[in-house]
């Protein structure tokens, strides 16, 4: 199952008992903060959850899968995530 933005809003609505509109505003505000932080090239560290950062990938050689033609892929930026030990243990249910 995938957790969607609507699911996040519902979880906040049910667990914190915040109005749906306020829950939606909260989620939208949080996502905007994350976007702006990534646009500025800054890292995001959430204790007990993990670290997100923007990584620059260099230009590289690629291949068109349809034609088999070689081409150069332009440099780009990607968002990378590494989970904390706490989250990793919960996911793996260490006992």
Explain the overall architecture.
There is one protein chain. The protein has 95 residues and is of the alpha+beta class. It folds into two domains: 1-39, no CATH class; 43-95, HU Protein, Chain A. Helices cover 42% and strands 28% of the residues. The chain contains three helices and five strands. The strands form two sheets. Strands 1-2-5 form a three-stranded antiparallel β-sheet. It has a two-stranded antiparallel ribbon with strand order 3-4. Strand 3 and strand 4 form a beta hairpin. Helix 1 crosses helix 2. It is elongated.
CATH architecture classification of the largest domain: Irregular
Regions with pLDDT < 50 over 5+ consecutive residues?
Answer: none
- Tally of extended strands? 5
Strand content: 25-35%
By CATH reckoning, the class of the largest domain would read: Few Secondary Structures
Order of helices and strands: HHEEEEEH
Radius of gyration: 19 Å
Shape: elongated
Count of the domains: 2
Major β-sheet, in short? Answer: 3 strands, antiparallel
CATH superfamily of the largest domain: IHF-like DNA-binding proteins
The helical percent reads 40-55%
């Amino acid at each position: 199952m995938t957790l969607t933005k609507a699911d996040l809003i519902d979880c906040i609505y049910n667990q914190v008992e915040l109005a749906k509109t306020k829950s939606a505003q909260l989620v939208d505000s949080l996502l905007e903060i994350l976007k702006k932080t990534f646009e500025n090239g800054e890292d995001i560290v959430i204790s007990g959850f993990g670290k997100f950062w923007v990584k620059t990938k260099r230009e590289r050689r690629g291949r068109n899968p349809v034609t088999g033609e070689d081409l150069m892929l332009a440099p780009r930026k990607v968002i990378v995530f590494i989970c904390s030990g706490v989250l990793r243990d919960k996911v793996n249910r260490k006992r």
